[in-house]
Every structure is written in C-alpha cells, then in structure tokens.
Amino acid sequence: MCGMQKITATFLLRLCNFLFFSLVSLFFNTVDASADKVKVVATITPLADFARQVGGARVDVTLLLPAGTSPHTYEPTPKTVQELSKAKLFIRIGAGLEFWADKLVSAAARDVTIVTCSDGIALIKGEDHGHAVSNVDPHIWLDPTICIKIIKKIEDAFSRADPSNTSYYKKNASEYIDKLKSLDMEISEKVRTFRTKEYITFHSAWNYFSKRYGLRVAGVIEEGPGKEPSARHIGEILRLLKGLKTRVVFAEPQSSTRIAEVIAKEAGAQVLILDDLGGQKGRETYLDLMRYNLAVMEKAFK
Ligand SMILES: [Zn+2]
Predict the structure, then answer these.
(1) N or C: fewer beta carbons within 10 Å in the chain?
(2) Are 294 and 190 in contact (CB under 8 A)?
C-alpha cells in the first residue's frame, strides 16, 4: 500500500513537471510567434487596413491616429513616439498630410524604414485646398486605382523586411488588388447614374476621387485645417449651393457638424456625412468606407 502511494506521488510529481514545462514552452512559443511578426505602424485607418490586408498573420499593425482624428490637426504624444520606436516599418501618405511625422521619426531615434505612399504618384496641385503645410493635395487614397499602387508599395516593403514570406505577401496583395478593381468599377457604374456631378465638400479631401470618376468639387466649406469659415466664405458657399442640383451639405466625422448645419438651414438643405478616413463602426475597412461614401453620394446626387 505504502509502495503504491509512493508510485502515485512520483507519478503526480512527474505530471506536474511535465505540465509546468509544457506551459513554459507554450508561453515562450506564443511570445516568439508575435516577436517574429513584422511590427508596422500606419498613420491613418486606410493605411492600417492595407497593411493588414497585405501582411495578414505575418504583421503586427498599430494605427497611429484613432478614428475621428484629423491628420491635419494631429498632435503626437509620447505614446506615439513609443509606438514608432518599436516599429520596423512606418507607413504614411506623405505629401504634407503627416506634417508632424518627421519630428516624430527623429524623436523615436530608431532605424525605422519609412514607406511614403505618395512617392511616385502624380499629385494634384493644391492652391485652394487649404492645407497650408504643403502645396500638393495629399488625399490620394480616395482614388482606388491609386491604392493599387500603394498596395504594391506595401507588398514590396514587407517583402524586403521579411524576405522569407515574399510569396505570402504577393498572394495577399494580388487578391486585394482584385477587390480594389471591383470597387473601382462599382463606383464608376454608380457615378454614371448621378443626376448631378458637382458638389461642395466639407474639407478638400475629394479631388482625386472626383478626378477619377468625372465629378467636380465646386467649393470647400473649410478654409483651412480646423479653421472656422468666415461669414463672407459662408455666403459664397450658399451662393454656390443654390447653383447646384443638390440640396445636401456634407459634414465629416473629424469636425463639428455645426457649420454644415448652419449652412444647410440657410439653404433648406440636408446634412450628410462624407468620411475620408473611416475607422468608425461599419466602415472599419477601406472597402466598407468607400461603399459607405458611395451610398451617401447616391442619396445626395441621384
Ligand atoms: Zn484631409
């Protein structure tokens, strides 16, 4: 009986040892699995989504600007620097959108590879768009065909940072590019049915989109990032609005809707939300975001 108890005790001890070491190795394997993922920081929601679409399970993506934050008025925090110092790749639009990023990269003081998505893209001059920090319009991602070029750039950067998974990134990128091509066709077909092709936006985000689909931005409510329009400018917007075949004033999630409401009331118009950044519920991904905007425009222009 005594011998039996001793055998049971030894067995239990061995079992405990086995479980303990299994847990320890499981823990370290888990840590290793996330440690060898490529750490990526992306500035805005569409770029974080692109990085996840191309990188899949091989990358760990951090979004810098939370939903509802405007890159034009963003102020980096010590946490921003901390996130960036851990990253291997930093994906940004460039063209003056993240005017705060250069300082950030030097503050992070680390060997981060910067992927600037606007490099090599034909940029629209921005005399009247109100982004004082740059003379080009940075809102390139609102044209899905430009996003195809961005996806290729991200695929290339991931393959360089993690060459053993090149074919994985290539496959993901090519599948996602097919989805962007379908989106582009879908928007073209819808826009063709619009009764009016001219509109007034809240901020100057929609020039690449308009150029791609044959629309025209007749005016912009915001005179500069985060700046309240003057009474004279509001008068001008009201005059423009009267000439358009739509009774819609666009506002956006990054700004207060108050000004748009004032203008809409004066013009007997309705306020709808166009969203150039996304991240809100129902428009977390770029594809959902663009389909949301298309549905809003359909409501306004058909
Ligand atoms: Zn903008």
Answers:
(1) N
(2) yes
Distance in Å, CA 122 to ligand 1 centroid: 17
**Do residue 38 and residue 149 come from a single domain?**
yes
Q: Give me the domain span that covers residue 82.
A: 34-186
Structural domain contains residue 3: no
Does residue 147 sit in the same domain as residue 194? no
Residue ending a domain, among 136, 164, 186, is: 186
Structure tokens at 170: 């290539």
- Find the 152 Cα to ligand 1 centroid distance in Å: 23
The whole-model pTM stands at 0.86
190-237: pLDDT as tens digits: 999 999 999 999 999 999 999 999 999 999 999 888 888 999 999 999
Domain shared by 181 and 44, yes or no: yes
Strand ordering across the sheet containing 89-92: 59-63, 38-42, 89-92, 113-116
Distance 140 CA to ligand 1 centre (A): 10
Q: Does 148 share its domain with 289?
A: no
CATH number assigned to the domain comprising residue 224: 3.40.50.1980
Indicate whether 112 belongs to any domain. Answer: yes
* DSSP character string of 157-202: HHHHHSGGGHHHHHHHHHHHHHHHHHHHHHHHHHHHT-S--EEEES
Burial-class residue 249 by CB neighbours within 10 Å (0-12, 13-18, 19+): buried
Q: Ligand 1 is a single-atom ion; what residues have CB below 5 A from it?
A: 205
Contact 169, 159 (CB under 8 A): yes
Q: How far is the CA of 203 from the centre of ligand 1 (A)?
A: 6
Distance 88 CA to ligand 1 centre (A): 26
CA of 205 to the centre of ligand 1 (A): 5
Q: Which of 121, 169, 163, 167 is nearest to 146 (CA)?
A: 121
